[in-house]
Specification:
119 residues; alpha+beta; TATA box binding Protein, subunit D, domain 2; 2 domains; transcription; TFIIA_gsu; TFIIA_b-brl; TFIIA_a-hlx; nucleus
């Protein structure tokens, strides 16, 4: 499962990385083992969220909404947004950044890209 370090930069990921870096600096573990630990964290975090999270949320945004897609990562900048969850009170937010990864990989493959260039 390739996760492209989605959770590496989360608060939990940063704490784990700081701890692992400290262990490498103290020569408790090797840098190779540190990389294995961080990769395992990515895979376990992705699997846990995929299997455990069942909540849904919707949001409505207004203002000068900016979005972009780079290598399957969608980034949305929402100046004014309202989040809604079923059975809960709506929450307003300002200057919210949402990053989402296209896990389905709807990008054209290299062979398809080449065939398009030939036409």
């Amino acid at each position: 499962m390739e996760t492209k370090q989605l959770y590496y930069y989360s608060t939990l990921g940063q704490c784990l990385r700081d701890t692992v870096d400290g262990m490498v600096a103290s020569q408790i573990i090797s840098s190779k083992l540190a990389n294995i630990v961080m990769n395992k964290f990515e895979n376990v975090a992705a699997k846990a969220l995929e299997e455990s999270v069942t909540a849904t949320m919707s949001f409505t945004a207004s203002g000068n909404i900016i979005y972009r897609n780079c290598d399957g990562f969608w980034t949305f900048f929402l100046p004014e947004v309202q989040f809604k969850m079923p059975g809960a009170e709506a929450v307003d937010g300002r200057n919210v950044k949402i990053v989402a990864y296209d896990i389905k990989g709807n990008k054209p493959s290299a062979s398809k890209a080449r065939s398009r260039k030939r036409k």
